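Q: I'm a student working through a structural biology exercise. My instructor gave each of us a protein and asked us to get a predicted structure, then write a short paragraph describing it. Mine is Secreted protein. I'm not confident about reading structure output yet, so if you can add a plain explanation after the tokens, that would really help. Here is the sequence I was given:
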Amino acid sequence: MSRLALYALVVCVLATAAAVVSFVQGSWLGIVWVLLAGLSSNMTWYYLRRDRMRRKASSVTG
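A: Happy to help. First, here is the predicted structure for Secreted protein. I'll explain a few features afterward.
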């Protein structure tokens, strides 16, 4: 797992936890945390797929 994918995953987990805490406290600010969690989740998948494609391409050519 690449470093960027790992960082994005950590941000996703922390944003999800912040959203839960925010909603439990009755704050609508949790919507922002949910959006951040979705964005970081997409970034995690992007970096994972990009690394997988790079490894596959390097194994074919090398």
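A: Here are two points you could use in your paragraph. The mean pLDDT is 95. The radius of gyration is 16 Å. It's a good idea to check both against the output above yourself.
Q: Great, thank you!
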